[in-house]
Amino acid sequence: MVRLNRLPRWLTWASLPLVILLLLFAFWSWDWFIPLAERRASAAIGRPVTIAHLHLRLGRVVVLTAEDVRIANPPGFAADPPFAQAERLIAQIDLLGSWRAAALVLPEIEIVKPVIEAAAREDRRGNWVLDVAAAPPGQPSSLRIGTLQITEGLAHIVLPHLEADLRLAIATREEAGTAPRLATDITGTYAGQPITGQALGGAVLALQAGAPWALSLQLANGPTRISLEGSLRDPLALRGAELRLVMQGPDMALLEKLTGVPIPRTPNYEVAGRLDYAENRFRFSEIAGRVGQTDIDGTLTVGTAGTRMSVEGELHSRRVDLADLGGFIGEEPGRVATPGQTPEQRRALARNEAQARVLPDEPINLPKLQSTDIRISYCADSVIGRNVPFDSLRTELEVKDGVVHLRPLALGVGRGQIVGNVTLTPAEEGRVQAEADVQFQRLDLSRMMQATQTFEGAGTLNGRARITGTGNSFATILGAGNGTLTLGMSGGNLSALLVDLSGLRLANALLSSLGVPGRTTVQCFVGDLVLQRGVLNLRTVLLDTEDVLVAVTGSVNLARERLAIRLRSESKSFTIGTLPTSILVAGSFRNPSVGPELGELVARGGAVAGLAALLAPVAGLLPTIQFGIGEDDRCETLIRRGARPAAR
Predict the structure, then answer these.
(1) What's residue 11's pLDDT?
(2) Alpha-carbon torsion 271, 273, 277, 282, what sign?
(3) What's this model's pTM, rounded to 2 decimal places?
């Protein structure tokens, strides 16, 4: 037998590479490359990545298999469970295709039993934010992925600030003639309400822009229903959307947690439109739907860049029911008769109508607007509602740093309008400082009388109101408010029945009710009211007609919602069947009482000498009122009469 030490030295050295190859073949393990793979993967996503085992099958298409892959949580989160893990990750690598495309081409990726634990802390910092460098705009991605298969995937998402605890069952679904589509079943809670849903997307991670990526989503979050159907041409960037969004539910305020946009309470609604996304802005266009009995159309844009959300839009209604907008002023929105109201909403409206108070006392919540900038224009062609004298509505809403501006807020009344600027500024202890400057421009008296459904009139009313106040609701703001209100009208006419009843001219009222006469000419109407700490004092309110002079005095306590008003009239000529006393309007806003002041049964004489006493306060008031109807000396006559000494 030949001993090894007697082999030629050249043969020994020549056999060493073969021995090494045989040893590598016998003991080779791709696990030796795990540290390199972990370093590369960790650097790519900015998060520690660990791999238990690594396998590689060589060929023109290389198959790489990684087992027990884990992606760690960022600092500040518990180590276990990790952010993501998968039993196996299998990737096909097309070497020739990668060389031709100058990019990494992965014809197929398969992830077996992936589990994602997405969570946010109380400061809203999430563990899902990966430090992945995006390709510069306009530069194609260096990664090409064909299809991605997911088997038995699970995701658990916990977002305390949204009261969300979601579980998603994720898998790809094979369909003939198409790449595997992503299917997701959603269960759990969101915004403190149960949520269920199903989503079906296109081929997962189909990064190539240009080919439509189908998407179908159905969600039920408590009573809210959301449907999203269509496609995206660039799914990862949410660009090129052809999506139709449909939302319906009992109250739009429930959408705040879903959309991040603060919305006041509303009646039941159903709204649809086209949804798109570009440059960090969601655009909801071609909106069509209804809120309560109000139709709505227009466009809304929600910007998500930076730390502040922005909302811009133009909305329009052909017809608006002002009751549907009650949530904007702290009132129960809608009516009991509004179709589609839930039993809870009907009970809330019934309770509201049964309450002793009338002014809206729901707290105004401005703090939630601090992080959102809003600019929305809204107009309504017509206003519907029982006993509402308004014909149209338009406003420009702007919210900046929590300060709310309505500039202007305009309500059409016949050929005139009530137009003003309103500002709501956050104050201490959750209160709101309100300022309003309102002008009454050529208000159509005939339109206002139509709302009474009993009396008639004609003419134009002008005036101005300035009000300031601080509180946590509109009721408390008015209950502690200060300001002034002046009104005036020169010329026109009123229902004779209304004027006769106001002066208890009973015989005349009987004739007026028969239309003899139907109306009486108004020489002049003036009003001067002062609001001091929630009490509206009727300093001077005077109506001068062709045959009677009516003066109104007293006060309205807005804090207590109590009335104490006296109407006193003086006939300009002898009348019969007149009850010589004033009319008192007293009691609460909800249940006022109207009747004669029985303690004032005193004789007044024929054409009473008390006219001068009634007219005395007018001389200083009329110059402050701009009637807006050209030269007219009828109110000047009233001034001259008020300036004369009282008859003795």
Answers:
(1) 55
(2) negative
(3) 0.75
